[in-house]
Fold:
Amino acid sequence: MSRLNLTLCTKTALLPQTNKTIAAAAAATSTSASTGGKWNTELRELSKQGQYSQALFFYRQMLRSGATPNAFTFPFILKSSAALSLPLPAFQLHCHVIKSGCHSEPFVQTALISMYFKFCLLGNAYKVFDGSPDSRKLTVCYNALISGYVQKARFLNGLLLFREMMVQGVPFNAITILGLVPGCTIPGHLDLGRSLFCLVLKSGLKSDLAVANCFLSMYLRCGSVDMARRLFDELPEKGLIAWNAMISGYSQNGLAKEVLDLYHDMQLSGLCPDEVTFVGVLSSCANLGAQRIGLEIEEKLERRGFGCNPFLKNALISMYARCGNLVKARATFDAMMHKNLVSWTAIIGGYGMHGHGEVSVELFDQMIQGGIKPDKVIFVSVLTACSHAGLTQKGLDYFDSMEKKYNLKPSSEHYSCVVDLLGRAGRLVEARKLIESMPMEPDGPVWGALLGACKIHKDVDLAELAFDKVVELEPRNIGYYVLLSNIYSDADNEEGVLRVRVMMRERGLKKDPGYSYVEYKGRTHLFMAGDRSHPQTKEIYAELKKLEALKIKYGEQENDELKRDQAIVNTAALHSERLAIAFALLHANTETDILVIKNLRICGDCHLFVKAVSKFVNYQFVVRDATRFHHFKGGTCSCNDYW
DNA sequence: ATAGGGTTAG
Structure:
């Protein structure tokens, strides 16, 4: 009889229909009511598969059948209750634990502790730990407590407990470190992270892959990219997670080129990228305006069956939006079944940065109508959209609604948006008043927004005030010096221009050396003026010569406008751009090619240069600078301003 | 058999 039961159980456990599983298992076990064993096996399966509500249901059946839960039952049940965010059963379950006399079992205790942490009931969690003298000898209990405190932003409590462990002589293990280290990412604790790292090196845990990955992501989250890279390079074996951590860490720190290089290296190493990898890579494509790589990745995603991953969908929306392909961004967005706040933020921000503020506002209202609650991040997108589209009143209304309607405290980032909003509209006095009314200390971007507005509306006096403030806060941000210098220059104030220049020299600030880069086959190629470091330098310079030759061919034509362009090809753009374009021409050889070039100085002469070159070729150029997308085709250019 | 953990979008 009992053998028959066993087969029944295992068979049904494999069925996807859980209700059947429960019924069958319940029927099967009802004959041997007092032994918890088969119940526990079933509970483990349900909990493993994430079917938590079924697990709880099953537990109730178990009690009804008269079986007694034991120390092997509760960990599953407590975990299920925590996963379902049902605090009421949590207390009931705690009572059950006590009733069945399992409360001093270490595994049950740990499960109780972590359950209480999931419900943010830190006091209750600590009481479980404190209430039993044995728990102070157990690594597992400390582990649960430490990781709980760290996850609930109580790093200090976690640290104190870790110290207590050391003092008491309780051994720590890899899990202890994994729980504690993420807390070192809060500002000012990196040194602590480093000491922990030393400790781990001595303890022999360094060979634990998870521990190494944990430190890796700690460094990356703290912005210590170089340190992270060193650690990464030293890893004896790099798993997928290490690559992913490094790639998304670069991506979050704005090192988009490094992301693409690393993605390339990863493929060379024979590892297969997964969803997490692609999220990081796509977000870097967005930053570089590298739509073509983005498109390739989208194809790959479809092939790999990652088409439905919401993280990836959102990354795609953002990538297309930031590359200026609003049509595709919108199509991706519209096709998404379950749009979340991030999806909305991406599309709203996309329209905003390309000057379609009205669409952004419309979408935002639509989102609110749909019952999605906005957060601080989306307000930044909406406010920026309003200011770039000149929707001043609308923006002010939204800003007002943040606190009143949605109980969101504006951060200084929101203030800088509104200063920008007012400033662009020429309401400089109000902008300044807003800054003075801020509940927190205004930061660089806030004063910078005012300075930018002064440039538009030619207010030299206010500009000087804003500059004094912003330079105090960000003395090494060269952009502000350039801005003020331009303001003086617009006002024909030669003395002012000179003063700024002297100031820059005294502080040792130099304009960044000009560089340009082109993306090609998943890699980004960087060129500086006079650069000969590229492996294809020879060919590139040859191509450049051919470009010069074009001018001769061109000069034969009798057309004034063309002659002017020819002169520009000849004399204008800086060397780094020429190299980048020569490289691009060298490699592009299909008619549908779109060359995406990110260029920091696609202004004036360089703009005309690319325009002239595009007359000679069948390719399209998309050049992205700090403020616009420039789309060159057949000698014409259309610009999509962000602003 | 059972807890605790490393990588993901705006």
